[in-house]
Amino acid sequence: MNKEIKNSVKYISKKAGNKTGFSSPSDYFNNLEEAVAVKLSEEKFTKENSFEVPDTYFNKLEDRVFTNVISAKKEITIVSFKDRVLKMIPIVAAASIVLFIGLNSFLFNTTEELTLDAISDDEIELWLDLSFLTTNEIAIALDDYLLDVNVFYFSTNKNIEDYINNSIDYLDLLDEIN
Hints:
Blueprint: H1 9-16, H2 32-44, H3 57-72, H4 81-107, H5 121-130, H6 135-148, H7 158-167, H8 170-177
């Protein structure tokens, strides 16, 4: 067993080298003389407080502070949000009236009349599909229109046309469809 003992001096110095484990900051010895001189000069100073306060200073201090604070206050006016909104309502109303009149007179002033002929059949079918109309409402709306328009202009027999126009109740037909 030729192993070295881990705690022997020879083993430790072999592992650590020549380092002692102690170090000093860089430029420590260059500034050492100044540091010692500063420390000695500080010790020469007296420990007494050289400042003096007048005897009645703290008795009058509070009064002086309050006079400065009170005189520095300014008059502050508070305007609430509610007041601002209430003041703006007439202005907004006037602006909306002017806008309404302006749009009606310039943009929406059209001379063409809208008729059912201007609307395509697909648009009418889509509207009827999306609306919640009953068959009775449709029959009432179309009843006068169908009686006024001569739908049977292609017919040569006047008796057939009279029979269909006078004897068929459109409301019953629409109810039968449902």
